[in-house]
Structures are given as C-alpha cells and as structure tokens.
Amino acid sequence: MKLNNKHKGTLFLAFLATMGLSACQSNSNNDTITNTQATDETSSSQSLSTQSTVSANATIQLKQDQTTVEGNGVSIDGNTITITSGGTYNISGTLTDGQIIVDSSDELDVELVLNGVEITSSSSAPIYVKNAKNAIINLVEGTENIVTDSDSYVLEDPTNNEPNAAIFSKDDLKIKGTGSLVVNANYDHGIVSKDDLKIKNGNITVTSVGDGLKGKDSIEIEDGTLTINAGGDGLQSSNAEDPTRGYITIDGGTLNIVAGLDGIQAETNVTINGGSFDIQSGGGSTNSSSSTNTNMIWGQWGAPASQTTTETSSSSAKGIKAVVDITINGGTFTIDSSDDSIHSNDSININGGTFEIASGDDGIHADTTLNLNGGEVNITQSYEGLEATTINVNDGSYYVVSKDDGVNAAGGNDASATSGRPGQNNFSASNGMIYLNGGLLYVDASGDGLDANGSIEMNGGTVIVNGPTNSGNGALDYDGTFNIKGGTLVAAGSSGMAQTPSSTSSQPILSIGTSFSEGTLINIKSENGEDIFTFAPAKSGQSIIISTPALTSGATYTVSSGGTSSGVVTDGIYTEGSYSGGTEIGSVTLSNTITTIGQTQGSMGGAAGMGGMGGKGQRPMN
Fold first, then answer.
1. Structural domain contains residue 581
2. HEC string for 369-409
3. What is the pLDDT of residues 104-116, one digit of tens each?
C-alpha cells in the first residue's frame, strides 16, 4: 500500500504505531463468523416502516476495540469489520477509528442497515465496498448516521487513487430509508460508486473537499433531501467512454448544492423531472469577470490545491452541465453560478419548471440547439442570457437581463469555461437561427437584444425587447433575414444601430423614431380614436419597432408619446383602459411591410454593424 499523505509529518507515523499495538491487544475480537444464512435481492425491498427490526443475517454493535456481532457473515480484525457474505446487516454504535469493509464473494446483495452509527477513519474510507452484487445502505427512520474520514489515506490502489471517498463502492450503491446520513469527506469525495449510484430517499448531508456525490456510470435520485457543500462538483457522473452511461436522472427531492466547480455535471445526459433545487457554483454570479470584481479571478474555481482529484474534463463552475443533452421537465430551480447556469455541449430542452437564474456568464447555453417548450424562466443577471446555434422559443415565459446580448444565436462551442472573460465564446458559424413560435420572451439587454449570426423567424408569441442605450448596439441584430409572420414584437432601444425586421415579412411593421425616457408611453390609435397599442419602454432610447396582428396594412394610425393610460400594464404593454394626454408624433398609413414615422437611423430590413458591451439592465416592475 502507498501512503498518500497530504500533510506529511510525524503524527501519522505515530498513529500507525498505535494501530499496530491496538491490533496486538485485540485478539479477542479477531473472530470469524461463518455465514449460514443469506438473502437475495428481496432484502433491498424491505418495508421502510419495519427497517429498525428487519430480519438480518447479523447484528453488529460497533464499539472501539470491543465490537460485537450476533449472526453470520462477518469477520472482525481489531476495528476493521469485514462483511464476507450477501445479506442484511443491522449496524449501530460508534467507531472512533475504524472501518466497515464489504467483501462478498457470492452473487447476493449486501444491505447495511444503519441504525444510529458514527464511524471515523484516520487512514481510509470508513465504509468501503470492495465487492458485492449490489450494495445498499438503509437509513433507519429517526436515526442519525455520521461517517467521517481524514485528509490522509493509506491507499489500497495508489495507481487509481482508490478508495478516495468517505463512502466508496466499487459496485452499484443504493441509499434508501428515511433516516439521516452525514458525510464529512476531508480527503476527497463524499460518496462514490464506480458503477451506478441511486438515492431513493433519506436526509443526506455531504461536506467534501472533492465531489459530493459521484456515480461513474450514473446517478439516479428519486426523492430525499440532499445538502451538499463540495469543493469540486456537487453531483458528477464521469463515464465518457460509454454513450449509454455517464448520465444523471432526478425525479424529485430537495437538493441544496454549494459547489466549487459544477453543481450538477454529467458526461452524457442530465434529465430532471421534478424536485426543488438551490445551486451555487464557483462562488456565485458575483464571481464574474468585471473591473470591479476583486473576489477571485474569473475561471479559477474549486477546491484547494491540495485536493487529490484528477479529472479528465476541464474544470468549470456551471450550475447544471452536460456534454450531450439536458432535458428539464419540471422542478423549482434557484441557480447562482459563476459560469453558465445551465450548459450543454450539445442540446437543451426546457419543457417545464420554474427558474430563478443569476449567472456570471451565460444564463442558458447550448452549443447546438436550445428548445424552450415551457416553464417560467427568470434570468436576473447574465453576460448573455440565452445562447445556442439554433434557438426555438415555442412556449413558456422567459425573462432575460443581460450585460451583453439577451438572445444570441451563433455557432460553435463556449470556451469561456477555462479562461478569459465571460462570453468569450469560440463561435464561427454564420447559420445561427432564432425561431419565435410562441410563449413570452422579455429581454432587457445592454448589448443587442436579439442577435442572430444568421436569421430570425417569428410565427407567434410575444417578444418584448428593451435594448441598449448606447449607440454601438441594437435591439435587433441579424445577418440574414428577420421575417415576421405572426405574434407581437416590441423592440425599443438606441437608434445608432437600430435594425428593423425584413421587408419580406407578411405582418405589418411600424418603425417609430422619437426620443423617449424610461417609462414614457408610446401609443398607437386608429383613425376612429381606438387604442390599438400602448407601450412603456423600460429605458431611454430613440427607436421603437412594433409589429402586431392588430395593425392592418392600408389603415391609418396616429402615434403619440407621453400621456397616461388607465389600462393594466404587464411587462410594459398596456391592456384595457384608455390612453390620453400625449404629444402626437404624427399619422401614417401602413404599407404592406415596413412603415416609418418620426426621425429614424440605423438599418431598414438589413444588417446592422457590430455592437459593443453595455452595462447592467433590469426587469421592469409592473
């Protein structure tokens, strides 16, 4: 065995000498109990209501130098308790310096029923599963179970740095029951399975130098309350060699994660069907790149340099991260991340859920496709809000506040995870697309509001853009075409780089050029004095683009600014009520495509120039 000592000194040598002496004095405990009774996988389905009295192969009462066993399948050597056969083992008591090892040679599950245990080890994993068909940890209702390791291990496998977690399993590991489990991992990881890790229930608290929970092949969480404070990733599945492995699936539960690196990280897919999530990664969104940030250098995250973990993937501090796909069908999320809050190297599907996001980089980023199909997303802080090569907004509501672009359709991968400032993406393709098909999209951007390296197509929904106040950006910015076939668009901002949708649009577009302040009403009335549209921009500017099915080609409208409205305002748009008291800008008859009124600059139905970076915006208060 190789001694991996993070803090070299004489204390550990003295400890080894003490352990040797202790072993010599514990011959009365060096007994082997032969197994004559074993259980099969049915042991894993014992009723949780009867788990404290579950039929067991053996009952183990832990006590330093005086551990006792009633039953079969257990051997004791000093303070090392080894389970040698499949079955169920009811364990209670305290080991101040010892270890439970599972080393079963048969093809049966091993279930450890933790009935109020406290195990500390100064040299290895307090619970170490070397061999078992499946390992099960059952937490007895009403009990607290504490597992603590040290910052120094005597490694059984120095080449692979194993074991390297306070609870370490080479085989599948399942944790169930309604009791509590506290894991203090001072060496590296908290709970590790080299195969599949399943959490069925329980109140689990992990504090770790490295990753909190790590299932190489997968992590599956059905329920329970998990509180994780990790120097590395909160949850990690790391199998990058098998495309059917390396995934994380969460169906429910409450997860509170503070991670130095990624909150949730999978080498293939992350699927979340429900649950409550509070995730902070990399010190949170305050640890972003800016001239005023003195907390850390952006891009330097994670555990102290003494951590022994060797990761194959590059370090990042994202909230939820997957290499292949992220699909979220439901749940409640609060994410405060230094890096992207939700990130995939391929695709993301948001089908439901409620999100409060604050990001030091992108709010939601997919290298290829971002499908927004439902849910309620509120991005209160980001460098860029929504980013992917192709962005499909189909349903749901999305509020985006960004220091640069609100919605950015580009191409390529996000390289900002490891160096440079946020948003420093390696995008090169010119085929970025934004499809606006339904739902509500509200953007408050200091850079471009909607920015497509390719084209934008709007078929439905409501899109409200409060764009930049500086003249180096525009509320709309696209390189190809922006065709509007349906839905409601309001885009307000500065006039220097203002760009209207394309003249090939089938829905009328009104471009209004007038100076306005934050909250100044812009009203459109029909010839007979009917209020058609009233909007209050959230920032000052000189350009407003409006397209809505309520506007008809060939009809004449009067546009006014200022005044008041008795209507109900939602996200700057007034409904019901009446408008009065404004100053008329002028009257105009709409053409089939784009009609302008007032003083306009920028580009009509064509490409605008390259924008710059602005300051921080804000979501309006209704």
1. yes
2. EEEECCCEEEEEECCEEEEECEEEECCCEEEEEECCCCEEE
3. 988 899 999 999 9
